[in-house]
Design goal:
Elements (H helix, E strand, L loop, with lengths): L8 H7 L4 H14 L8 H9 L3 H16 L4 H5 L10 H15 L4 H12 L6 H18 L3 H10 L5 H14 L3 H6 L14 H14 L9 H30 L1
Helix pairs in contact: 1-3, 4-6, 6-7, 7-9, 8-10, 12-13
């Protein structure tokens, strides 16, 4: 039997056209056994085009993988990246998002990992990035009253570029100014820092939070603004502490 990972994807599917379910079983067993198989997702794409329901079967295996290991290898989400090239990209992304949200209930880390990677800004061209932005906007427009959905969405993009996060937050506030929702949103990345002094990284947080203040004007955003201002004050205090620590180290 041919190795489906070393043959043109369309040719593989054509060979199994009368028994696509067999190919699907082989595919799933193969990627579970060796996680790097079909890393570019070409064969997955070809199978889904032949059998649209296979997308959900793949997601089922992904969820099983995530709940058993408590992590999602990047390859599993990377195989799905081809959806942004499709005319039906909105439908594909909605199916992925909805399925993961509903089926991975209680394991929101799976949703955040996969959706977050699919929305990660990359060098895919302006059209691809525009499609990602349009999907984020569509999701906010559709589910702005669903606190769990919004929490998961903003958790998925919290490590992304500030522009993407800022645009998403502005869109949400236009639809829902509920402070309880805003209070739960992860506005900042979980990870920060790097080489050398930590002060520039702390200042980046202040710069970002300060950029949010103009969209929080008016009485209805008073508590929102205070939360952001508190965050700014905390980072300023950390900078002062870090300055003292660095000064003491230089003197030592």
């Amino acid at each position: 039997m041919m190795n489906p990972y070393h043959t043109e994807a369309s040719e593989v599917v054509s060979q199994y056209i009368r028994d696509i379910s067999l190919l699907e079983d082989i595919y799933l067993k193969g990627i579970v056994y060796s996680g790097n198989e079909d890393s570019d997702g070409k064969l997955l794409e070809a199978i889904i085009k032949q059998d649209k329901t296979f997308l959900e079967r793949y997601l089922d295996e992904l969820i099983l993988k995530g709940t058993s290991t408590y992590s999602i290898p990047k390859t599993w989400a990377k195989r799905l990246a081809h959806i942004w090239q499709e005319d039906q990209h909105m439908d594909y992304m909605n199916r992925i998002s909805n399925y993961l949200f509903e089926k991975a209930d209680g394991h929101s880390i799976i949703y955040r990992a996969v959706v977050g990677q699919l929305l990660q800004p990359k060098d895919g061209g302006d059209i691809i990035e525009q499609r990602k932005s349009e999907w984020i906007e569509y999701t906010i427009q559709s589910f702005y009253q669903d606190k769990q959905r919004m929490y998961n969405l903003f958790s998925a993009i919290k490590e992304h570029k500030t522009e993407q996060r800022t645009v998403a937050l502005r869109k949400l506030l236009e639809q829902n100014d509920d402070y309880e929702l805003f209070e739960e949103l992860p506005l900042e990345p979980s990870h920060w820092g790097g080489w050398g002094s930590m002060i520039p990284y702390m200042q980046e947080r202040i710069t970002y939070l300060t950029s949010l203040l103009p969209m929080l004007s008016g009485l209805k955003f008073l508590k929102h603004k205070q939360k952001v201002q508190n965050g700014i004050d905390i980072w300023r205090a950390r900078i002062k502490h870090e300055e003292i620590e660095e000064l003491l180290e230089s003197l030592g």
